[in-house]
Amino acid sequence: MIRFICVCIVVIGYLILSIPILLVEWVIGKFNKRAKDISSLRIIQAVFRFILKITGADITVKGHENVPADTAVLYIGNHRSFFDILLTYVLCPNVTGYVAKKEMESIPLLSIWMRYLHCLFLDRKNIKEGMKTILLAIEEMKNGISICIFPEGTRNRNESELDLLPFHEGSFKIATKAGCPIVPIAIHNSAGIFEAQFPKMRPAKVMVEYGEPIYPDKLDKEEKRHIGAYTQNVILEMLKEMNQ
């Protein structure tokens, strides 16, 4: 419980104490939006690294060199833990917005930071509003902002992490419409940090693997038509290797 309490103190304490930082970032953004984006990214990455250190997680990263450095990308990953966001965000080389559930928009201060970081809020119950979010994500990518989404739609609570939930095909329109590559991410044992023994946190061996980028225009017609299933299979194969 000590780790859990410490993480809660850090998160709540940072959100409260970061109010002056939010104001400074807002001023920077008025003069140089790019500088504000980068500084916000690095600040939150530092906070996330500190939180991960508190959890005691032993994190192995593989294939990060596969992330293209010269273009925005759509990160696609499997999702079993709240910590999946932290594990992947600390590795983002450039400004990246995450697609989060609509309910998070009502959390004070946190939602402001999320907007600063180009995060988008998806209403999973409203198809029309959901499509608006996808269109916003497409525009962000066209403007050079990478997007990360977990297309299972929610945290996967199945007993085996190899038993993936269906990937929502609509998520992949972000890449196909923006003309950007997809980077598949396989996250192994992230639930071992917290969810597996809730409410306790225990050190866990976690692996994050980045697959080779998928370029939609280079896929054949059938693969592109079912690009969600295609990407899911790529991630599943990486997870199978991790579980051997």
Count of extended strands? 7
Tell me the span between the first and last alpha carbons.
31 Å
Residue windows where pLDDT falls under 50 for at least 5 positions: none
Query: What Rg, in angstroms, do the CA atoms define?
Result: 18 Å
Average pLDDT: 93
Specify the structural class. Answer: alpha/beta
Beta-strand percentage range? 5-15%
Q: How would you characterize the largest beta sheet?
A: 7 strands, mixed
How many helix segments?
A: 9
What is the string of SSEs from the N terminus onward? HHHEEHEHEHEHEEHH
Strand order of the largest sheet: 1-7-6-2-5-3-4
- Approximate shape: globular
Q: What is the helix fraction of residues, given as a range?
A: 40-55%
Q: What do you see in this structure?
A:
A seven-stranded mixed sheet has the order 1-7-6-2-5-3-4, sandwiched between helices. The mean pLDDT is 93. The protein has helices at residues 2-17, 19-31, 33-55, 83-89, 110-116, 127-142, 173-178, 221-225, 227-242, and strands at residues 58-62, 74-77, 96-101, 120-122, 146-149, 182-188, 205-210. It has nine helices and seven strands, in the order αααββαβαβαβαββαα. Helix 1 (2-17) runs antiparallel to helix 3 (33-55) and helix 2 (19-31) packs antiparallel against helix 3 (33-55). It is α/β, with parallel strands linked by helices.
What distinguishing features does this structure have?
7-stranded mixed beta sheet, globular, 244 residues, single chain, alpha/beta
